[in-house]
Amino acid sequence: MNTAGAHAFVDQLAKLLELVGVGIIIGGVALAAVLFVRSGLRSGQWQAAYQDCRSNLGRGILLGLELLVGADIISTITAPLTVQSVALLGGIIVIRTFLSFSLETEIEGCWPWQRAGRNRSEREGPTSPG
After folding, report:
1. Which residue spans traverse the membrane (predicted)?
2. Is the dihedral of CA 30, 56, 91, 72 positive or negative?
3. Using CA atoms, how far apart are residues 29 and 16, in angstroms rounded to an integer?
């Protein structure tokens, strides 16, 4: 396989990965909406269903964003490297990483550095006074 063929293959692979990422985001939105309505109708507790919907929606968006970042990185392999293209890629990755960080914090309900302490206290259970 020559270099031009390899670049064309990698470019198509990046486009496929972008489509999968967008599909996951769209599918995540649809699935979160269906689960929200189903849970709300079954239990009548719309507030709890809403919280679950937000978490499910965030997870779908987060997974889709991860694939889109991967596709951006792969597509730079085929693009001619200029200062402008590298800066653009860096900006896209910073924005998408910030979005991923924000979504993960929203889903988990705490900052990443607080997660270990929270998980440990959940495993140990409530402490008895004494």
Report:
1. 19-37, 81-99
2. negative
3. 20
